[in-house]
Amino acid sequence: MAAKTVKNLNSKIYYQGQYWNDLPQVQNYIAKSITGDENKWWVEYFKQKYATTPFHHGLFLNCGDGRWEREFIDRKIVKTATAFDVSPDFIKKALLLRGKRKIEYILADANKVKLPKNKYDLIVNYAALHHTQYINRLCNVLANSLTQDGIFLNFDYVGPSRNQYPIVNWLILKLVNNTLPKNLKKTTLGYPHLPTMLATDPTEAIHSNLIVDSVSRFFNITEKRNTGGGIAYEILTHNTNLNKKIISLKKSKKHIQRLLKLDRIFTTLKIVPVYFSFFIASKKSQRDVKTAYFQQIENIREKYSLKLENTYTLFNFLVMFKHYRSWRKRAKMTGDYMIYTLARVASLFLAFLKHI
Fold this sequence. Notes:
Helices cover 45% and strands 15% of the residues. It is of the alpha/beta class. The protein starts with 23 loop residues before the first helix and ends with a helix.
């Protein structure tokens, strides 16, 4: 695959700040959503249900510093592991932390990675697919590399792409934030700024909204547990008011519990989208006859996105258009949009004709 891919080699932006799942109450909320028991974490649940006998060889996607493959080996969920990441810094750190564990590390771009067929009986996606540009291609590669009786474990952000939340979702989120006391309210709550996201990490949630559909083309989802986030995630993540002293107060715990209850209610009623999901999948015995067509559609999508400021929708393109102050730049963007949109439509139509 020779096409240019979107990737981020700056490992320093990851593992920074406090996320919602760092809070004990949120951990309980997530645990109960997945396992039915707020005191049983998803890793323990997975081991008890799927790994009473350890898997032989696991593959870990976009592994970062290697935390999950180390934990899975230490918990005897899997005997050996292969893991890859695009960041040389992360691979170097993971190697230092590997110890004597049987883990092979590969420096690879998820959008281009090549894997042996029928090699792994466990594949683990922990917050990896939402950084993948060519997600259809990767899911196809993963399906080929999984043994027929293997398991594909996913726990990922599956919410709106690039955190560009629906307006109703955002208005409810802001309203709920304003009901919190001053010492818990997120004072820096602002709609995610697309130009900044593209500048700091263009892979962040690039196709998060396509994860479930993409996986479903090549795998059968046999178990799915949504863990919400549509209200609580943005309020509790990078909230500078939430220090250990504050969150340990009885009143604070009460307000956080109410926030999580609202998160569950609004998510269950489908008023806000699901942000995070835990799901298990198995390899399909037969492939969709449209596999080649789906890949062609993805290739067309990515080809023209790179020509249109790395955007995929008219709304996002207009956000980028507004961001640039130069009228010369705006004029070029307008021309590009007209030309490349017509070219994209023509390409999609030709692809459709070939596969009907």
